Amino acid sequence: MTQSERKSGLFVVPGDRLGVIEEFTSGPGTYVEGGTIHSKVTGCTLLDMLNKQVSVYPLVKAATVPHVGSIVTGLVLDVKSKNAVLRIFQIGDKMLSGFFKGMLHISGVSHGYVDNMFNVCKSGDIMRAKVISTENRSFFLSTADKDLGVIYALCSLCGHVLQPGNRGMGCSKCGNFERRKLSPDYGKDTTHKGEQIES
Ligand SMILES: [Zn+2]
Q1: Domains of the chain (ranges plus CATH)?
Q2: Is 64 exposed, middle or buried, given 0-12, 13-18 or 19+ CB atoms closer than 10 A?
């Protein structure tokens, strides 16, 4: 924060810099690293100028944490033969300020048999999924319902957007074909491309 930004009521996310230990003491919701005070939570800054203490009041609304049954949208971070890890950035139609990691196991992909996760999604894809378990704050996902699956995918050879066709997902640029577990909404949703998923 710069000098002029040092005030209460600022929205911060975990890791945001709040000040240095020469100026303030570290209050609830903050931590110190290398002499700098950072926010530990998503919330609002509380600056006690009298006691020179900075704290963060956590803002956690029910709608910002996935629950069992929540429909979430996420970026595929990593794919192995039996599971994929997603960075959940949206719950329903609400974009999240932080993010959660979700796990899609191969048994949750479809009601039918799926042999290999690499035929379901690839890293960099955007997927819509349903939360089926939140035990130990781990979010386990399913794409078995008919409206769930990949909604945006890029060619793994050249990075061009893939288009569904008779032979699978085709790349009009390099002619590559790939497989995905598609949502019927594939390609219709244009709100998740570019910078919004990077935040
Ligand atoms: Zn291509």
Answers
A1: 6-58 (2.40.50.100), 63-187 (2.40.50.140)
A2: middle
The pTM assigned to this predicted structure is 0.64
CA 178 to ligand 1 centroid distance, Å: 10
- What confidence tens digit (pLDDT) does each residue in 132-154 have? 998 877 899 999 998 999 999 99
What is the rounded distance in angstroms from the CA atom of residue 153 to the CA atom of residue 194? 13
pLDDT of residue 160 exceeding 50, the answer is yes
Give CA–CA dist 189/196, Å, rounded. 13
**C-alpha 169 – ligand 1 centre gap (Å):** 10
Considering only CA atoms, give the Rg of the chain. 21
How far apart are the CA of 24 and the centre of ligand 1, in A? 53
